[in-house]
Specification:
- Keywords: Hydrolase.
- This protein folds into two domains: 7-94 and 131-189, no CATH class; 202-341, Glucose Permease (Domain IIA), CATH 2.70.70.10.
- Helices cover 26% and strands 21% of the residues.
- The chain has nine helices and 16 strands.
- The protein has helices spanning 7-11, 49-53, 59-74, 79-93, 124-127, 130-141, 152-160, 172-189, 336-341; strands spanning 24-28, 32-33, 39-40, 43-47, 197-198, 207-209, 222-225, 231-233, 238-249, 252-253, 265-274, 280-286, 297-298, 303-306, 317-323, 333-334.
- Strands 6, 7, 9, 10, 11, 12, 13, 15 and 16 form a nine-stranded antiparallel sheet that branches.
- Strand 9 and strand 10 (252-253) form a beta hairpin.
- Helix 3 crosses helix 6.
Length: 349
């Protein structure tokens, strides 16, 4: 799930009691048929801009909440598991992926859940990967007999073995509210959509570079900002017709399994989906090899890879292209804004 998908919703959460009571309305749509004949699945989540400005919730906190929820949802766990996980991370790290804090560090605790390498949770690098850390949390939670019926703070303590076993309780109301809001977004975006559905490949992510702008006339797509590891979704049904590492430096091949730079040429790890209507979508700069192979079929909302910065890139983002032909080239590139708007999908500015 995308870090910004629930941006308005999560920014409006009462992250600490001092912020007071914030009012938010969030409603998930089921797939709807647009005027153009395409099915879309979108979420409306709005909060007062004044109240949003009153909070200090950062992009990292938003991303981490989405990651914790999404990892649990993809395992098919009940929402109670995500409530436990979010309450735990809120207590342990305030939803921040903490590194070693020097003299202030609690033993060798790291990451969202303050897991310890010395206790067998993983290497420091693994623990500071939010997906890995969330996965390990749920792994342990599922080994605890009867966790589903436990109080949230008791279930969290059974996983964490904290010196403050009751500390998680105060976060339960906020964790439940966050789960309710995230469910309206994640469930919509990952729903089984009807044939012909379209969805945003990186829901809520802001556009940081446009299509063929004055300062980048050869830029054949949109750049959508998101953190490393954010899931990228197939925009619609289709067949994968290309998966490739495209990166060179000074004329020599360059690895796509590491971050690129402005000096590196190419799209990095990328994938193309040929759609039944004769058009094509291209997804560039993935952090690792895409999850599908040439010839595979995909459906709208399938996770096809994860945001990275491979190839010609100065930071993590999705470079998204749309083409009017399955044989994609610059001559048949088209503005993704218009392409997706025709299919009922909009992008954040």
């Amino acid at each position: 799930m995308n870090p910004r998908a629930p941006l308005a919703a999560l920014l409006a959460l009462p992250f600490v009691a001092a912020l007071g009571l914030l009012v938010l309305t969030a409603a998930a749509s089921t797939p709807e048929l647009s005027e153009g004949g395409f099915y879309t699945c979108r979420t409306e989540a709005e909060g007062s801009s004044a109240l949003i400005e009153a909070t200090d919730l950062s992009d990292e906190q938003i991303q981490n909440a989405v990651t914790i929820y999404t990892v649990g949802a993809e395992r098919g766990l009940p929402e109670q598991a995500m409530v436990v996980a979010l309450a735990t991370a809120m207590q342990e790290s305030t939803l921040r992926n903490l590194g070693h804090l020097g003299d202030a560090n609690d033993h060798d605790s790291l990451g969202l859940f303050q897991q310890r390498p010395s206790s067998g949770w993983g290497t420091p690098e693994q623990i500071q990967d939010p997906v890995y850390a969330s996965t390990k949390f749920y792994d342990k939670l599922e080994t605890i007999e009867g966790w589903e019926g436990m109080a949230v703070t008791d279930a969290a303590q059974a996983v964490q073995i904290s010196a403050f076993p009751d500390a998680y309780a105060k976060w339960e109301p906020l964790a439940r509210l966050a789960v309710d809001l995230l469910a309206t977004i994640v469930d919509c975006e990952t729903a089984d959509l009807p044939e012909g559905a379209w969805t945003n490949p990186l829901p809520g992510a802001p556009v940081v570079s446009g299509y063929r702008t004055g300062d980048r006339p050869d830029h054949d797509g949109l750049d959508l900002w998101a953190d490393h590891g954010t899931p990228i979704y197939a925009a619609s049904d289709g067949a994968v017709n290309r998966v490739r590492c495209n990166a060179t430096l000074n004329g020599a091949d360059y690895s796509c399994d590491t971050d690129g730079s402005p000096e590196v040429m190419g799209c990095g790890w990328y994938m193309q989906i040929a759609h039944p209507d004769g058009t094509l979508t291209r997804y560039c700069h993935m952090v690792s090899e895409p999850l599908f192979e040439v010839g595979d079929t995909v459906e709208a909302g399938d996770i096809i890879g994860y945001v990275g910065s491979s190839g010609n890139s100065s930071g993590p983002h999705l470079h998204l292209e749309t083409h009017t032909n399955h044989d994609a080239n610059s001559s048949n590139a088209t503005d993704p804004y218009s392409y997706f708007a025709d299919r009922g999908i909009s992008f954040s500015s």
